[in-house]
Amino acid sequence: MTRFLLMGAVLAVMAFTMPTKKVVLFNGKDLTGWKIYGTEKWYVENGELICESGPDKQYGYLATEQFYKNFDLSVQFKQEANGNSGVFFRSTVEGTKISGWQVEVAPKDHDTGGIYESYGRGWLEQIPAEKETILKPGEWNTLRIRVEGDHVQTFLNGKAMVDRHDEKIGAANGSIALQIHDGGGIKVRWRKLVLKEL
């Protein structure tokens, strides 16, 4: 009995100390590991991933082929023109209809770092006015999203934005997906998409 208890304790320590797996989602060269949904533009330029409105001016998504349930994701973005976009997590896409949760990436005073549930409850967390100054328009910004179980945290340029527990999110699984909002005139640059699986 003592031996089994000791083995259990050793396994628990090993599980606790095992390094997290780091996944580079964007290789800086092409869209390997991603799938395009819709007719909007997704392309690579100078090592950066660019999303841009196409002639249809509709919603567009670029989603990982792999599902990621528990993770800590860091991504840099720079908005050009209208930067209305977002990063979805635990999402699934059919055509241009997405199910899941979006961490907003938008122009100043439009809740970058907040959480929106598409085709569901709408805004779960919007950003208070005093945090709208954290976004740096026209510059590179760092967005961090940590999701573990039902716990979601978002950070913009190192500042905490959202800290929420949500039962519905906790039950879900799916892809990481970048969004182009409808309406046209949107362009956002992305780089350094690195995910640590938890």
From TrEMBL:
InterPro entries from the UniProt entry: AL/BT2_dom
Entries under Pfam families matching the protein: 3keto-disac_hyd
GO molecular function: hydrolase activity
Domain 3-keto-alpha-glucoside-1,2-lyase/3-keto-2-hydroxy-glucal hydratase: 23-196
Protein name, as recorded: DUF1080 domain-containing protein
Species of the source: Spirosoma sordidisoli
